[in-house]
DNA sequence: AAAATCTCCAACCGCACCCGT
DNA sequence: CACGGGTGCGGTTGGAGATTT
């Protein structure tokens, strides 16, 4: 038995607020202050749910709210805080005077998420997609050195990988991922009707960096298990942790924003002051005190030094995403076998597939429906 | 010019937590 | 301790306006 509704929804007005209704709320609050919102509609002469009145006040009518566009500095802060604490919009909004959690959430969903995607960065995990792909190649300790004959009927996509389902990903996550991959491949190339192996990746040019990010981002964002408010989804998190053989479900990752951004030549030249770098690392490192303290405690207790202008310089430069394949060095050196070129990426995938094929020939059953 | 599609954001929903009784 | 009302929060939706076809 669920909680009873806060009001009789059939008898209260819903939808957009009129100026007259706004005026009534404002008049009521100016006389009585906020609080006990369930009584506000009656006392203010409104045919609205009290909850709706509270929302209207907190998200729109409060006099301290800003209604103008987000400044670049605010944008930077949102991105950094989102990386540190995830979609804790209320905590993020507390760092942005005049902004509500709803404002921040909407701005993230409509602008910032897409911006990161265009830069080649997964907005869920704030990691470069190239790393995600390379880490996927390393999933569950698969060797990078395949020495097998080519096969056109290999099997990674043909049957649930027991290693996935038993230790890293749930069957639902795998199914969701595969389905998403299939849908997006078809969107890119409708002639691909039913890919049964990783070989299908070779059917389209991998160098199209506009398309690549979609795979993992959509897979992570569309899976039920990945829609939680945690800072990283279990789905994607598992991939990253495989890289360093860390505990399977653990936020421990070797990647940091500063490493990634420093790998960009333009950014690195602007970001050479040690003090700034130190502050930036502290702000961004998920293992460090400031960010994690925010996740655990009230954000207001944290002292974050924003060095966001450096970050903005990268965003505005616009080369991080498209230039990723060329510019990765220190941060992604161990991923070079996959990310250095399109062909090596595809070859890497195929190698993994072939190796898996040889290890688990029973996965070849073509009748298996991987949905 | 009209229809279709996309973008954006205000508002809603349901759950969880807090706190007084 | 249990219960219930108030509130906070994150995810989702609906629709107005903008843009594209």
From TrEMBL:
Note the InterPro entries from the entry. Answer: Homeodomain-like_sf (IPR009057), Myb_dom (IPR017930), Myb_TF_plants (IPR015495), SANT/Myb (IPR001005)
Tell me which PROSITE patterns the record gives. Answer: HTH_MYB, MYB_LIKE
All residue ranges annotated as the HTH myb-type domain in the record: 9-65, 66-116
Q: What SUPFAM superfamilies does the record tag this protein with?
A: Homeodomain-like
Q: Where in the cell is it found?
A: Nucleus
Q: Which CDD domains match?
A: SANT (cd00167)
Whether Protein biosynthesis counts among this entry's keywords is no
The record places domain Myb-like at 9-61, 62-112
Q: What is this protein called?
A: Uncharacterized protein
What keyword terms does UniProt attach to this protein?
A: DNA-binding, Nucleus, Repeat
Q: Which SMART domains match?
A: SANT
Q: Which domain of life is it from?
A: Eukaryota
């Amino acid at each position: 038995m669920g909680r009873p509704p806060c009001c009789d929804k059939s008898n209260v007005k819903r939808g957009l607020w009129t100026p007259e209704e706004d005026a009534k709320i404002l008049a009521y609050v100016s006389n009585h202050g906020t609080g006990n919102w369930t009584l506000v509609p009656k006392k203010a002469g409104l045919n609205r749910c009290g909850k709706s009145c509270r929302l209207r006040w907190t998200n729109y009518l409060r006099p301290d709210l800003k209604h103008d566009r987000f400044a670049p500095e605010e944008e930077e802060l949102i991105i950094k805080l989102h990386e540190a604490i995830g979609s804790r919009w209320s905590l993020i909004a507390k760092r942005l005077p005049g902004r509500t959690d709803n404002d921040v959430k909407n701005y993230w969903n409509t602008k910032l998420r897409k911006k990161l995607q265009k830069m080649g960065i997964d907005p869920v995990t704030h990691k470069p997609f190239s790393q995600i792909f390379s880490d996927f190649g390393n999933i569950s300790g698969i060797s990078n050195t395949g020495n097998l004959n080519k096969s056109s009927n290999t099997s990674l996509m043909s049957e649930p990988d027991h290693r996935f389902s038993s230790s890293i990903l749930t069957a639902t996550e795998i199914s969701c991922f595969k389905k998403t991959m299939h849908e997006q491949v078809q969107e890119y190339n409708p002639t691909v009707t039913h890919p049964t192996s990783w070989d299908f990746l070779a059917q389209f040019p991998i160098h199209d960096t506009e398309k690549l990010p979609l795979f993992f981002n959509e897979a992570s964002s569309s899976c039920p298990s990945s829609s939680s408010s945690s800072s990283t989804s279990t789905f994607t998190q598992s991939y990253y942790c495989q890289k360093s053989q860390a505990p399977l479900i653990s936020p421990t990752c070797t990647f940091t924003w500063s490493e990634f951004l420093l790998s960009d030549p333009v950014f690195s030249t602007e970001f050479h002051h040690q003090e700034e770098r130190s502050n930036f690392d502290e702000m961004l490192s998920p293992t460090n005190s400031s960010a994690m303290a925010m996740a655990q405690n009230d954000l207001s207790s944290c002292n974050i030094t924003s060095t966001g202008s450096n970050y903005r310089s990268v965003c505005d430069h616009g080369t991080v995403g498209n230039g990723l394949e060329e510019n990765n060095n220190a941060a992604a050196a161990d991923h070079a076998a996959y990310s250095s070129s399109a062909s090596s990426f595809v070859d890497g995938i195929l190698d993994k597939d072939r190796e898996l094929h040889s290890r688990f020939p029973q996965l070849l059953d073509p009748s298996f429906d991987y949905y």
